[in-house]
Write a structure and sequence with these properties.
The complex is a heterodimer of chains A (74) and B (157). Chain A is α+β, with helices and mostly antiparallel strands and 74 residues long. Chain A contains two helices and four strands. Chain A has a four-stranded mixed sheet, covered by helices on one side. Classes of the chains: A alpha+beta (74), B alpha/beta (157).
């Protein structure tokens, strides 16, 4: 079970979702992806849409000024 | 059943293609089934030979193919300023870290967005399926497109 990192703090819609989806698709069962993202649209929607697609959101933690880390597991 | 978004990509303009592929990639990334139906000027975006090239079945259609010129030569729908505006927009996009149409098209391919070409418009422009990128899944008429798009949301851009 591996852990991967993805930083989408500099990305804008739709690449925030696109990059997350492409990385999530590479995960094997039990792997986790830690996504660094900005508050606003990415923070509101990346955890929600990941959950809708059957992934588990293990946590959302502050990781800097207006930046959060979302931990997603397959 | 997954949500579904089908977009009729008619325009071929730089800004409208940006809208098509922004919606398509965003929807695909959040789990939608996405179908893109390229017709008329929109077909220019999925040609294998991008840039100005004489693609077409007759001298007249080859001339159209040359002047349409693919995504790189696509004009913006307003204030094109003889082709200066798309260059300015590309520069602004890179500067603001926003994806360009080419990057969005690559993302759409990676996300498994379905590409379809309009049979009627291909016939007018003298194009065959071999003139398009391999991701173009099929050549369709209206009835087949309606069947594929049925039960989902459809946009015309």
């Amino acid at each position: 079970m591996a852990t991967y990192q993805l930083d989408i703090t500099r990305e804008h819609c739709p690449m925030t979702f696109v990059k997350t989806k492409i990385e999530l698709a590479k995960l094997k069962a039990g792997d986790t992806l830690e996504v660094l993202l900005s508050e606003g649209e990415p923070l509101e929607n990346v955890p929600r849409t990941s959950q809708e697609q059957g992934y588990h959101v293990l946590g959302v933690e502050p990781a800097g000024e207006k930046i959060y880390k979302v931990i997603i597991q397959k | 059943m997954a949500n579904k978004l089908s977009i009729i990509s008619f325009s071929g303009d730089f800004d409208k293609l940006t809208a098509v592929f922004t919606l398509a990639t965003g929807a695909a990334a959040v789990g939608y089934e996405v179908n893109l139906f390229f017709t008329f000027w929109g077909l220019d975006a999925i040609k294998k030979k991008q840039g100005r090239s004489f693609v077409g079945g007759s001298p007249l259609t080859r001339l159209f193919g040359f002047f349409m010129g693919g995504v790189k030569a696509a004009p913006v729908s307003r204030l094109n300023f003889l082709g200066a505006s798309p260059r300015i927009f590309r520069w602004l996009m890179r500067r603001n870290n926003v994806a360009t149409p080419e990057e969005l098209i690559d993302a759409a391919k990676a996300l498994g967005v379905h590409f379809y070409a309009c049979e009627m418009a291909m016939h007018i422009l003298g194009l065959t399926k071999d003139d398009f990128i391999p991701e173009v899944k099929d050549v369709l008429g209206v009835a087949s497109f309606l069947q594929i798009a049925g039960g989902g949301q459809t946009l015309f851009i």
